[in-house]
User: What shape does this take?
Amino acid sequence: MNSPAASHLLATSPAQSESRLREIPYNYTSFSDREVVVRLLGDEAWTLLSELRAERRTGRSARMLYEVLGDIWVVKRNPYLQDDLLDNPKRRRLLIEALRHRLGEIDQRRQSDDLQRDEKVAALLARARRAVDEFERTFTETADLRKRVAKVLGKLTAKDNIKFDGLSRVSHVTDATDWRVEYPFVVLTPDTEEEMAGLVRGCIELGLTIVPRGGGTGYTGGALPLTWRSVVINTEKLETLSAVEMTQLPGLDDPVPTIRAGAGVVTRRVADTAEQAGFVFAVDPTSADASCVGGNVAMNAGGKKAVLWGTALDNLAWWRMVDPDGNWLDVTRVGHNLGKIHDVDVATFELSWSDGRYAPGHRVIKTKTLEIKGQQFRKVGLGKDVTDKFLAGLPGVQKEGCDGLITAARWVVHRMPAHTRTVCLEFFGQARDAIPSIVEIKNYLDGTGKQRGAILAGLEHLDERYLRAVGYATKSKRGGFPKMVLIGDIVGDDDSVVAAACSEVVRMANGRHGEGFVAVSADARKKFWLDRARTAAIARHTNAFKINEDVVIPLDRMGEYTDAIERINIELSTRNKLRLLDALQTRLNEPLPAAKLDADGVSRDEWLTERTSQALELISRVRGRWDWVLTHLDQPLRDVNDELIEHDLQALLPAIEQRLVSQPDATLFDIVQDRTLRISWKVELLKHFEDMFSGAHLAPVLAEIRPCMRECSRAAFLWHCTCMLVMAMCTPTFL
Assistant: This one.
């Protein structure tokens, strides 16, 4: 994902802008009118409709066409209505007749005096009639396919596990992303692992696209159906869980503590089982209370403990899956090093396929040995690399369910040293100022601290956007909001050594615009980590998604990277706001509506002219200010005094003087980045417009210009989500 792609999102054409005016009734979805028309009638239909709308004469025909599309769309996007119409043929017939009647009314209203316009209307009607015909056929196809699915899959699992009902389909249309593309045709909830291979084979026979799903906590859209002919196989009932068992792993001399878990076991249950036996389960994603084992394998989940024991891949001793042919595939790690996989020269895996028509492992089809260089699993200086989904051909792990369905796994668990302390480091100022301290801390704990017996057992980085999203309460008394927070567990068998390491880490943070705090008791440490657990609430901030793929960039380049992303964000956001000014200026130069004025001696035109002139003058001042900021981001702060006064920003001078004391080479970009200087259309435009056009008599003016501002807000939101996606994908995990 890069800036040109995001720039394209912000480059809104007139047709696209118009498409966001909602005229299709019952459209409670996130699809715009344009998207609905394109999906139901095709791309050319929207072009025809836009041309006809531009020369609309009465609008009644357009409203009737939109009513037809609205009726079709609301049924397509509501499984409960679909079920109701499937169960009531008479009601369905009446609906189809009503749709065709409306199209007939449109046909009768066609005017033959304009042949070119008449041809456009005829083309639209032909497409609409085909859409109604297809809509009608859908019910027959759905009923027939449901019978086939029930017949084929009913032999392989209990009939209650084959779910066509609206509740099941609605519950499985999305995951934690809240994206809804297509509703699944059917949801399967098998009772046992043994049913899985047969169900996959049955779905292949039926021509259904298979979507595996566990807890539905993913933020990458891996569990989203993308076609209506899809089946979601929910593995939550596969919840067999063993106690911690001393297991003889292939290639090792001594037994190793392990846990076997079904794909539907919630991650927290595995962790609790390990803890009760005095061990630690290394996989610890923020979604541990809801995510499942199958997803941990498929996503190669990590978490705060990845710094010590690595991600899921590093801790898997064995896993079982159903491949795309419906056969069983067992993958066994040979000679497990009980640590991070990239620390070994060669990692060996034994692959064994068995016939899916029988019990797992009953009839072996073929075997294969994979020998993969340990370094191939990680890029130098990085942690998990999701750009390499192939992983040298190793099945299952990090494939997000694309090469099979995980059914069970055996995990290596670990012993934690006797003493643990948690440090919380809050860094203020610019990210690039804090990064050297983080690098220094990481090097110390990997070197001197580790030699003395202090080990870094968990580490999580939270940037400013995460912190604001979860309502982080700073522990510092210095005031202000931290730019980033680092939370880490330092462990060891000697409490004095652990305490000394924590003190050294806090000292390093204090030297780089940071402040450190140490928690000793279990309750205090839990509170420190609570903010990390809340980072799943990032969806509140973006209304779309959070991605924490444990991808990293080189840690010493983190500050540089953060600045680059923020620079792109600021530039694109400012350009988008300048487009808003263009749209507002164009609208204000056109005739504006207003209610009847009661003011004595003031005509309607005089009143509007005066307010419009004030608004245009405001736009001119704001444009000059935003243009100057955009084109002078690299200008040193020591040289901007005159320009600040010229653009009504003299209130910033005291803050800038204070900034120059600590950072003599600071630039305009620095104070925009830390929000000392804010570019806000709500504060600089909307607030003043509401004052200028206040009162009931000028309410129609505000109603005319508000859509321009909403369009700016939507485009800015899309770009912000893009930046959040890129930045979240590069969250450090310090492997």
